[in-house]
Amino acid sequence: MLKGFEKILEKHDLKKTKPRISVLEILAERKSATSQPDLEQVLGKDVDRVTLYRVLKTFEEKGIIHKIIDLNGTANYAVCSSSCTEHQHHDQHVHFNCRVCLQIYCLDSVHVPQLQLPSGFTPDTVNHIVYGTCPGCNEKHLQA
Amino acid sequence: MLKGFEKILEKHDLKKTKPRISVLEILAERKSATSQPDLEQVLGKDVDRVTLYRVLKTFEEKGIIHKIIDLNGTANYAVCSSSCTEHQHHDQHVHFNCRVCLQIYCLDSVHVPQLQLPSGFTPDTVNHIVYGTCPGCNEKHLQA
DNA sequence: TTAAGTGCAAAATCTTTGCAAATGT
DNA sequence: ACATTTGCAAAGATTTTGCACTTAA
To answer: I need a labelling partner for A44 at 20 to 30 A (CA). Which of A18, A113, A123, A137 fits?
Structure first.
């Protein structure tokens, strides 16, 4: 039986190569989004940096993962939770970027409120990033 | 009598130099945020690229301008509307990034709703970017 | 006068591109 | 076997750093 990631690749007509599966594994086993530098480090010399760029680009275009830009303008990636397709790239949940540990959390549970935009502005995607301190870092801070 | 920008520089103990005043002039005369490449182009060879980096960094640290990262991860800058200080860097309004003309609008008028975060998450800044099509580009599109 | 700020050159990064070799189907 | 995908080398772009010269106060 195929593992989850392999099904995903099949579904998008992508070959099941080592770099692609490795990237999916890493992203899948984390609930928070992972930065590109992080990915590079974890993958080590198994996957070339250039390949990583290309894998991430392909995945994003196919709607398999989505990109979140953090405080420093660094790209972070997470697997799309629901039904993202090549054309409809839903990303309607709130992200939380911790200033201390720099982790990005996808807060799927948080309801994104409907905005009342001035007339003429047609929204398609809403990117809602909250910066602050996450539970783990808050705790450490209190103990100190 | 001093122009507005010069007062701002004075207030933050910054010398009134040509590069700084030029940057403030450009940012002030635009209602939407300006990308760093744009700034470079407008400033031309009057201001060194390295100086621009440093001016923007200083301004951001002092709370004179704030940075918004757009779709491509490019830094955009706008003068802070209200009372940003070095420590309290409020940026609680909604930005709108047009996919067609790539302009970033600061929608000060739009009310940013209060979010209910899971316990343990302490927010300080909320960055709310809406992607879509702006009034100008919408119109052109309809006419075509 | 003198501390802060600029400009140039050069290093360090980051990202993209071209092409031959390797890999999945 | 063949189209995709990878890895390497090298080009291009972006950002940072060091240091001597300039400028605002």
So the answer is: A137
